Structures are given as structure tokens and as C-alpha cells.
């Protein structure tokens, strides 16, 4: 099958969508598909990557002539399906949708983020302006939490399926013995993610500070981003820099090593559409603490793979409970080590997308 992926952002930029799309492209190519990518992200030439990029203010990944350029690419390459990847607001991706509709090509749109009330209102307005609900699209979201607001806006005219992000489970499966925290030592809490305000990393520090008032903790928060300065000031102000470490960005290999030394993983963002870092921790055998209404709840069940909270105080209590209750912590860790989140494995994800492609082709016919 010839597949054309369209994404505002792509390699060499590194982020959740960029890495996930690149991994999907690689896995589909390994499965025998002919796969190409169109992106508005500038960068060096890469095989199969069409960079429809121009200089824009703030390096925004968009092209003013995106629709015509993408339409020209589609009519010359003639893909069997166009797979568009969108965040909350992705102008170039939606230019790809319009080009696919004009070219009468099957289109699957994957939304990688959560639609907040403002975003939902915007798409309702665009529905009235462009009637995109009648374009024959097939939608996918990365979790049930992300799919609910999309279905509320799209209505019955656009099928919205849940197709998980993919993970190479073998690369995260623990190989050494299960970790046992020292009897009287601190419990090691780990978090991984971009240090951006929308991820609320300072709120994570507040959570750790509240939990540390009841139990002994040490924490490692991996990642980098614009909120790092605010986090460092918070740590200094509250005397937390002796037991909270901000090592910056780390490679996948380094994160695997860190997770082998972790007792608890915390996913602090309340509007997390999926949580690939939390999935990596769960696959590595670490109990996960996360918001009950986030996408993490698709692969973390209460008391099984971790603990879920519906408020800040419940998240604090969950961390404290796992720190105090060694038996519960080790039981969850053992379950995570012995079982795999199969629906997040690449074979299942690829099969799910193949089904969506078939549905999109039938809708165009």
C-alpha cells in the first residue's frame, strides 16, 4: 500500500508527535508498505520526506501555499491513503485534509492531543464554515479521553476510532531483578516529559513537596523546556534541590536505566492525551500515578498497573500510599513486569491503522 503521512512537525524536531510519526513510518516500511512524509518542518534532506517549508515568524511549521503544494504532491505520487497527523491546532495538517478531499483520496486524521473547550468551539465553527463533517474522513484518537471531545464535535458523520500510540515493548521490558527500595531509605519517584507550562511541571513539584511532608522521597525529573527556570526557582525557594534532580534531556537508553532504579512514576499533566513516557514506565515494570481522566487511564487501571487520582490531593495521596505500602508497590511492579500492554504494541497498532485505511477507502468509493 502507498501511504502518505502529513504532519506539521517532523524530524529533526523532537517531540511526542514527531517521534511517534517517525516510528510509525518506520514500522509500516518494515511491513512492506511504500511510505512517504510531507511536512512543513525544515531540515536536511531525508529519503521519502517532502519538506514543504518556508521561513515563517517564530519558525511556525506552516506554508502559505500548503494546499496547492500538497495537492500537487498527491496527484503526482497517487497514494492509496493519506494519513494526516494533527495536534490541537495544526494548520498545515488541515491543509493536507483539504488537499486530500480535493484530490478525492481516502483520508485518515489522527488527533494526537486533547481538545479543550476553546478548541472544540473552533472546530464547531469550522464545521459550519467548511462542512468538514461531510468530507468522508475517518478519525482516530490516541486514547478514549482524547476521543470523547472529538466525537462530541464530529457527530455521527465522522467515525472516530481509538488507536493507541505504538511502543516497541521488547525495548522496555525489564531484564534485571525487580528493584527493592532500602527499608528505611527514600522512595525514588521519576517523571519524564517536556518541561512546558501546559504539562504543569511546577504543579508536579508542588505534588512532590506535599508528599514529602509525609514520606521520605527522592525524585528525578527528566526533560527540558521553557518551564525549567521556574522549576529551578521553586526548588531553591523551598529547599528541594537536595532531593529533586533535573538532569535535562536523556536518551531512551538512559531513561531505561533510570526506570530500572525507579519505585514510582508520576504523570502529572491533567490533559495528557496519551502519555508515552508513562507507557514506557509501565512496560518497564514501574507503578504509575496519573490523572484518572487522562489518556494514561487507557493502560493504567486503578490498583492494577498503578493508582489514578481525580484531584491534586488524590494524586498526592497516591504517591504517599505507594511510598508507604511496600507490599502494594511491589505487587503492582510485579504485575507490570509480568504482563504487557498488548494493545499498545506495534503489531496491534499497525493492524488497527490498516482497518482505518480500508474504511477510509470504502467511504471515498
From TrEMBL:
Residues 185-338 form the Glycosyl transferase family domain. SUPFAM superfamilies: UDP-Glycosyltransferase/glycogen phosphorylase (SSF53756). Gene3D superfamilies: Glycogen Phosphorylase B. One of its GO terms (biological process) is carbohydrate derivative biosynthetic process. Keywords: Glycosyltransferase, Transferase. Pfam families: Glyco_transf_4 (PF13439), Glycos_transf_1 (PF00534). CDD domains: GT4_PimA-like. Residues 15-170 form the Glycosyltransferase subfamily 4-like N-terminal domain. One of its GO terms (molecular function) is hexosyltransferase activity. PANTHER family: SULFOQUINOVOSYL TRANSFERASE SQD2. This is Glycosyltransferase involved in cell wall bisynthesis.
